[in-house]
Design a protein that fits this description.
38% helix, Beta Polymerase, domain 2
Amino acid sequence: MAKTEAKTAKKKKSAKLPAQIDLAIAAAEDKQAHKLVVLDLRKTAGFTDFFLIASGTNTRQVRAIADAVIDSLAAKGAKPAYVEGYDRSEWILLDYFDFIVHVFGPETRVFYDLERLWGNADRIEIP
């Protein structure tokens, strides 16, 4: 297997995700979020285990996706420890300690490119 193939296989592994992340993914999908990606940061960062990254097509959809994630997790007793960017809705960050949800508008996601920035993290396929 070539090095690039091995690297790609590592980046796109499947893993069992914590239930709260599965709920967040389902809530984002219900609001037609696109380009959903989960990055496993357990081997790379000390401050959280996972990033869930999603995109909306405009600020209204970005806010709807974030609201759906918040409501879905609140129904199971989880509230974000910190919320940032809600007012502008170009990039909303929801910090649940063990994982962070990033909901981006299209231009903001391209600008910050978290997938490249955290390129050493394992990328988990979303079923």
